[in-house]
Design brief:
The structure holds two protein chains of two kinds. Chain A is built from one helix and five strands; from the N terminus they run ββαβββ. Chain A is mainly beta. A five-stranded mixed sheet of chain A has the order 2-1-5-3-4, with no helix packed on it. Chain A is globular, with a radius of gyration of 12 Å. Chain B is of the alpha/beta class. Chain B has ten helices and eight strands. Chain B has helices spanning 5-10, 12-15, 21-30, 42-52, 85-96, 114-118, 131-143, 171-175, 187-190, 194-213, and strands at 32-36, 56-60, 101-105, 123-126, 148-154, 157-163, 222-227, 232-237. The termini of chain B are far apart. The chains are: A mainly beta, B alpha/beta. The A-B interface holds A 6-7, 29, 31-32, 34, 36, 39-41, 44, 59, 61-68 and B 37, 39-42, 69, 126-131, 134, 151-154, 157-159, 173-176, 179, 183-184, 186-187, 192, 197, 223, 232, 234, 236-239, 241, 268-269. The complex binds zinc ion.
């Protein structure tokens, strides 16, 4: 299955959940990442049950607290 | 409002632009911007807004200039170490452009003072360095329907997003709640490249100028992320979260509130 993850199109195995994708992509601070699929946010409680489909566009959003 | 000869010369590079012109420069000069945090992001934002001739610029911060600030907070200079940041910032801004009125607010924003503070301004720039303050600014601006620019930086990365009433997600749509203290790295622990504050703070100033002049399209409905190591700018399109606690359909947050300040850090705006 093809997914677009953080802007890059790549091949993944079928039936991947958001939670599994977070592990595969080695996401930094995975407990605190926000995920959007096709421009819609996925609730963190639904990472395990949300299954990716062909051509889904996945973005990871990271906390950036600096500014000082 | 007629321009003086000095103003015609000072702002000539603005006024020659089709998107700004004489009308746009007048709008800039009638604009009132509030910068919360006179630090890494606030410094370049304040410099460019002052140079642009924004009529009233408020700057809120309770801190004093520290030597470790000078690697990125370019509005302060070495002789300013120890001086209140708002004073040091005001002096630099007025040296650049005596036309602008600088209002100093020498305190940290809290749930008690933020609503009355932002009420006097048209556009708010979040230049704070901690999550409780960023969520407080988001909530107060959403509740007061006050347009604002959110930004964050760390290491070689930065991101920003603009919020305008009715357009796109708010910061809370993106992140729900602040992470627990020390759960994600801060600049103090992880570092930040000085020029990153310049890049992102200038983009915030750009959004304020676009807001005042109406030029172009604001960065609403998208988060712009910048990775300096790969030199990638990405604009991530995002929708509102219908269940957002402050901008959603049934908001549970109807007035600003303070999250506990992280004890280990000592809260700076
Ligand atoms: Zn929201």
């Amino acid at each position: 299955m093809n997914l677009i993850v953080a802007g890059a199109r790549k091949e993944y195995e079928d039936g991947l959940s958001v939670a599994e994708l977070i592990v595969i992509e080695n996401v930094e601070t995975p407990m605190y990442v926000s995920v959007s699929v096709n421009d819609e946010f996925i609730k963190s409680g639904e990472f395990e049950t949300t299954i990716m489909k062909e051509n889904d566009n996945v973005e990871f959003l990271y906390f950036m607290g600096g500014g000082e | 409002m007629a321009f003086s000869n000095e103003q015609l010369e000072r702002y000539s590079r603005h006024m020659i632009l089709d998107e700004v012109g004489v009308k746009g420069q007048k709008k800039i000069m009638k604009g009132r911007a509030l910068i919360i945090g006179a630090g890494g992001l606030g410094a370049p934002a304040a410099l460019y807004l002052a140079a642009s001739g924004v009529g009233v610029i408020g700057i809120a911060d309770a801190d004093a200039v520290d030597l470790s600030n000078l690697q990125r907070q370019v509005i302060h200079t070495t002789p300013d170490v120890g001086k209140p940041k708002v004073e040091s910032a005001r002096e630099t801004m007025q040296a650049i452009n005596p036309d602008v009125e600088v209002r100093t607010h020498k305190f940290f924003v809290t749930a008690d003072n933020i609503s009355s503070l932002i009420a006097d301004y048209d556009f708010v720039i979040d230049g704070t360095d901690n999550f409780p303050a960023k969520f407080l600014i988001n909530d107060a601006c959403v509740i007061s329907k006050k347009p604002f620019s959110h930004a964050g930086i760390i290491r070689f990365q930065g991101q920003l997003m603009t919020w305008v009433p009715g357009e796109g997600p708010c910061y809370r749509c993106l992140f729900n709640n602040p992470p627990p203290p020390d759960a994600v790295p801060t600049c103090r622990q992880a570092g930040v490249i000085g020029a990153m504050a310049g890049v992102i703070g200038c983009l915030q100033a750009m959004e304020a100028i676009k807001f005042f002049t109406g030029a172009g399209k604001l960065l609403t409905g998208s988060l712009l992320t910048y990775n300096a190591l790969s030199m990638d700018f990405r604009k991530i399109k995002l929708a509102r979260r219908p269940g957002c606690a402050v901008c959603g359909e049934n908001p549970s947050i109807t007035k600003p509130f303070d999250y506990a300040a992280p004890v280990c850090e000592g809260i700076t705006i």
